[in-house]
Amino acid sequence: MTTPPAESIAASDRTPRADDSSVVEIRGVVKRFGAYTAVDALDLDVPRGGCFGLLGPNGAGKTTSLRMIYGVTRPTAGTIRVFGIDIGADPRAVRARLGVTLQENVLIEALSAVENLRIFGRYHRLPGAELSRRIEELVDFLELGSHARLPVRALSGGLQRRIAIAMSLINDPELLILDEPTTGLDPAVRLALWSRIRDLRARGTTVIVTTHYMDEAERLCDRVAIMSAGRRVCEGAPRELIETRLAREAVELDCTRAEAVRLEAALSGAARPLRIGNRLTLYSDDSDPVVAAIHRLDGGERRALIVRPANLEDVFLTATGAKLEGGA
Amino acid sequence: MSVSWPHAFAVWRRSASMYRRTWKLTLLPNFFEPVFYLSAIGIGVGAYIEQMGGTSYIEFLAPGLVCVAAMNGASFEVTYNVFVRLHYEHAYDAMLTTPLEADDILIGEIAWAMTRVLIYGGSFFLAVAAFGLAPMPSALLAIPVIPIAGLLFAVVGLAFTLRIPNMDLFSFYFTLFLTPLFLFSDVFFPIRERLAGPLLLVAELLPLLHPVRLARAAFEGAWSWTVAWDLAYVLIVSGALLAWTRRAIRERLIS
User: Do B21 and A67 touch (CB under 8 A)?
Assistant: First the structure.
């Protein structure tokens, strides 16, 4: 006689299908609003545990995708399963197990954090005693302290954001969806929020976050998917994406269009160029030959150069925003 | 309709929690408005009128004003308050991230509007009774008319609120819709005796006349077949508009 491993018991407790490792499974999803296609043939798997970043410029379809995951936007085509449950068939069951922090705070400004949390907890039908316990835990967890009893409208943007996140945690969700959680917050507040999100991840909560701050995604996410014009452009661990999709290093300089053409000819494909305005960025795994080529072009004069590691922002820009001229 | 009553109750409790904080500020003006009409027109204008509809003028006014109190209570709730919750507080978007569904929100809000109506209409009824203007016990039958009128004006108001793009349009609703209803629905004079045929037909199609006739029948203890028609009107129109608002709230919240 062997007993099943403890993990599989825990997994089958939480999902109807014990073998299912994806919390969210999106297959061939299309969403059209009239003639406009917001999301186009999207396939996405969000693995259990860890933090998944959904990145893309404004209008890429990130928020629409999130809304389809929790069932308030219905796909035109395709299927979405969350915790193995078809969201279209049983949105109540799915939403009981997840939490969502919307882009805009939805707090009742005249009420305190504790009162807001109490009203929100009732939507989940949490019984009074359990609700009080959860509220206490969340006030602690998000370090609201004495602010928890003041009217929300008297509090700073950072505190209001923390309360909004606390509300989406009231039902102890297995999946937390954060739509641009740090937009408009100052750097210190962003750092504090990131550390809370890491704590949640460490407890086993799956987190989906949308952002257009690439540094945030790089530091916070185990996996990211970059979306553009409703499609998934690429997906992977941030470091892996940078190295496989782009290159290890970047050289940045200001130059005219004619200079850029000459430089690109001289490099003959040794570096991948990205030009935005007068700024040229050259990506390669080894930047020494690139720098040498620039120096040769300049003759005796040496212009200002920046040599730096390539980052997610570079992947993002080459994948979505800027027009690529040439290319590796 | 897939209403979960416990979830609808959670929606009701949100509004109730908010109301508990402000009821002293909102109850008084809402309560005194019909009291002012009753005293100014009933006592003031009434002094020059021997009788109307077989009673003193102030007694004629009382049942109609009970319905007006109900109409006003429901209308403020489902116009300005619902609009703010929908567009400014994003309360419904927040609710839809939880197990609540659009139907729960609709029913919770209508139930809350009817609760407010009971508070306003009920307290006005008590004032009328205290002044000896409500013949007992027959006038007690006017009490159930209050939530019925509340339901009707809740769904009428919601049908408007869910379709308009900005708050300025509420002045149309109040000035061009509710005010004529208030003036031409048997509240101040028996319209059958003063209005021409086609206008009577218009009044018959509009919502306030029916609750007013029901309340008046209760006050006078004089029941006729009109009561059946008035009840049927209120129930059928409420049901039809409920179906309509159900679709409208989905279109607003779910894409």
Answer: no
